[in-house]
Specification:
Layout (H helix, E strand, L loop, with lengths): L1 E7 L6 H10 L4 H9 L6 E10 L2 E10 L6 H4 L3 E2 H9 L5 H22 L7 E2 L5 H17 L3 E4 L2 E3 L3 E4 L2 E4 L3 H9 L4 E3 L9 H10 L2 E2 L6 E9 L10 E9 L11 E10 L4 H13 L4 E8 L5 E9 L4 H12 L5 E7 L4 E8 L2 E8 L2 E4 L1 H11 L3 H12 L4
Parallel strand pairs: 1-6, 6-11, 7-10
Antiparallel strand pairs: 1-13, 2-3, 4-5, 8-9, 12-13, 14-16, 14-17, 15-16, 18-19, 19-20
Helix pairs in contact: 1-6, 1-8, 2-6, 4-5, 5-6, 5-7, 5-8, 7-8, 9-10, 11-12
């Protein structure tokens, strides 16, 4: 059985609304609070309060900051993307929670970088960099982990119109970063005739980073439902995010619905060594490519050469393309759109004679992290194949 969360965004989406909806659907509040405490920061209070929005009972996730400790709410302080990355890396979060939270900020940094025409590492978050938004993102990641969610599907995202006020001044509604995030995953949208900011960068970034697909509710047996309240209570429209939790008996056929969009980037090179090719592949993967590989080819005049390829999310094409050009020195790059159907998987750690080894577990397959297995085999003086076999056995759900 696959644990599924369907996120209904007909009233928009924001980080606090998502967090409230997941807690309302049954996520363990203590587990969420403990995860946020793992950030190692103080000067805040998080409460989950019962509220009504448009006649619907919901949970409001309310983060209150001590302005003495966090003056950014008064002075629009900036928090660079690298600072948030360092905060998460140094935290006491469970690895799946840390990884999910970091992926949200990664896609948001890429979107902001594209809007401002700068490198993602140089992005400085304003409202999203405030501690309450960081708490929302980490809280959502922890709540999803608490509920055992393996697959997320989201409905069309409601957006307002007009202009909104931000740290950058007046911006179009929805703001540029939100539009960039919507485009990165081809998210369906709904226009609502209101000047409210219905879709926030934090909320849309969570969907862009974590949702498998977008559209109608998938086939599943419904187990729970939760409603997360927005701060405002406008007349005539329930300002809530609805999360429906269910179980799917079997994975949907690969051709039953559109896959996740991806872009394949290619360059041809005939003047590069094998060592540089290997380094290029490692650098592409570290930069966020889904996969990277080298294919031997023959170019004009019979010259032996290689095609270097990288598969990535549309949101990070600029970053991955930049790495590909920089590392290979190619004078040109090609790209084409395609779809991918990544198999649902879980990450865990097994221990072989005291040495931790990361494994990915999917249906009928246990994949061992090669570098971890090599380190364990070297330390133990055992054959690598034996260590891999034992890690696969320990990681198998059939144990």
């Amino acid at each position: 059985m696959t644990r599924v969360a369907y996120i209904q965004c007909a009233a928009g989406v924001a980080g606090d609304m998502l967090l409230g909806a997941l807690v309302d659907a049954g996520a363990d509040r203590d587990e969420v609070a403990a995860a946020i405490a793992g950030l190692g920061v103080d000067g805040y209070a998080l409460t989950f309060e019962r509220a009504q929005r448009g006649g619907i009972a919901a949970t409001w996730a309310n983060v209150v900051l001590d302005e003495h400790d966090h003056p950014e709410h008064r002075h629009h302080a900036h928090r660079p993307a690298r600072v948030i990355r360092e905060l998460l890396a140094a935290s006491d979060l469970a690895e799946p929670v840390r990884r999910a939270a970091q992926s949200v900020f990664d896609v948001l940094a890429d979107a902001e970088a594209a809007v401002h025409g700068i490198n993602a590492d140089d992005v400085e978050f304003h409202e999203v960099g405030a501690l309450d938004s960081i708490i929302d993102v980490v809280g959502v990641a922890a709540a999803l982990h608490s509920l055992g969610i393996e697959r997320i599907v989201a409905g069309p995202v409601a957006c307002g119109r007009g202009v909104i006020t931000s740290a950058h001044g007046d911006l179009p509604n929805p703001p540029p970063a939100v539009v960039r995030l919507l485009a990165s995953r081809l998210m369906p949208t709904i226009g609502v005739d209101t000047g409210m900011e219905l879709a926030t960068p934090t909320g849309v970034a969570v969907l862009a980073a974590l949702a498998e697909s977008f559209g109608a509710m998938p086939a599943m047996s419904v187990r729970a439902v939760g409603y997360g309240a927005g701060t405002a209570d406008p007349p005539g429209r329930p300002n809530v995010v609805q999360v429906v939790i269910g179980e799917s008996a079997a994975a949907d056929p690969l051709i039953a619905s559109p896959g996740r969009p991806a872009v394949q980037l290619d360059v041809n090179v005939d003047d590069i060594t094998g060592e540089v090719l290997a380094h290029t592949i490692a650098t592409l993967m570290a930069a966020g490519a889904f996969d990277a590989w080298v294919t031997p080819i023959v170019m004009k005049k019979g010259r032996p050469a290689h095609m270097v390829s990288a598969l990535c999310d549309p949101a990070v094409v600029d970053r991955i393309g930049g790495v590909l050009i920089a590392e290979t020195g190619s004078l040109g790059i090609r790209a084409h759109q395609l779809e991918r159907w990544p198999q649902t998987r879980t990450d865990s750690i097994v221990t072989v004679e005291g040495h931790p080894i990361a494994v990915k577990v999917a249906s009928g397959r246990v994949k061992v992290e090669h570098d971890d297995a090599v380190a364990a085999a070297t330390a133990l003086g055992r054959p690598l194949r034996d260590v891999i076999a034992e890690a696969e056995r320990l990681g198998s759900p059939k144990r």
